[in-house]
Amino acid sequence: MREPFFAANWKMNKTPAQTREYARAFVPLADKFRERAAVVLCAPFIDLVPLHEELLLADSDTYIDIGAQDVFWETEGAFTGEISPVMLAGENVQYCIVGHSERRRLFGETDEMVAKKVFALIAADIVPIVCIGETLEENRMGKTRERVIAQIQASCTQLTEEQRGNIVIAYEPVWAIGTGMSDTPENANETIACIRDAAPGLSDTTIIYGGSMNPSNARALCAQPNIDGGLVGSSCVDPVNFAALIEHGLQGWDDAKP
Ligand code: PGA
């Protein structure tokens, strides 16, 4: 049985001091989603420790999980600037975004690198949030399905069916990220249906939509049968806005999937 799932992708925003402020504002706002949704805050590496401290200090019984935005696949060694899954696990990181389109486009991350990161995270008991999505050009050429199926198959090659059921996939059309132009709920739902059919085990996987999800469109998107929630960039930077988005997303769930 899939559950509603909302992850904030802070991207390269927030200092440790701003992280503490955010956590203090967000925890009371998000308390009403306890036992109704999984909520994850994916923060820059430098903010993971303050986030951990704040969530525990604010609420020793917190249900809000901590996520990272990237990882390297080796455990330790001469890899200047990198962070390993073991280091993340040591800071109570339960989720980690991999293969975000910004990392693919700006930092040359390939499907093969994503596959290694996914495998390394699972070995460290961290749930990967695997991002896939087509570019505007691929979309215009009618290649959306082909592209996302190829990406997900390449990212999950080494996984067993059971492991595939326990990851999170974020379908994020690249042209919708940060543009204010989200995909239509129906299109996103159909593309995610294709992703679910791309490999055994994916019918039970949490699959969320990302790309300009906001408090106004979250309800319609989350009412779609294949959409389990959102990976949220612009609308998560302000804790009040992110809480409003989750509220509307859950209304969508309740409308269609009570
Ligand atoms: P956006 O970003 O909500 O600003 O479109 C989503 C993402 O990049 O994960």
Task: Give the key terms.
globular; about 45% helix; TIM Barrel; binds 2-phosphoglycolic acid; about 260 residues; alpha/beta; 8-stranded parallel β-barrel
Brief overview, please?
The protein is 43% helix and 15% strand.
Structural features, described:
The structure is a single chain. The chain has helices at 16-30, 45-58, 85-90, 101-107, 111-123, 136-140, 144-155, 161-165, 185-196, 218-222, 239-256, and strands spanning 5-9, 38-42, 65-68, 93-98, 127-132, 168-171, 206-210, 229-232. The chain has an eight-stranded parallel barrel with strand order 1-2-3-4-5-6-7-8, surrounded by five helices. Helix content is 43%, strand content 15%. It is α/β, with parallel strands linked by helices and 258 residues long. The longest helix has 18 residues, at 239-256. Helix 1 (16-30) links the parallel strand 1 (5-9) and strand 2 (38-42). The relative contact order is 0.14. The two termini are 12 Å apart. The chain has a single domain (5-256), classed as Aldolase class I (TIM Barrel), CATH 3.20.20.70. Helix 1 packs parallel to helix 11.
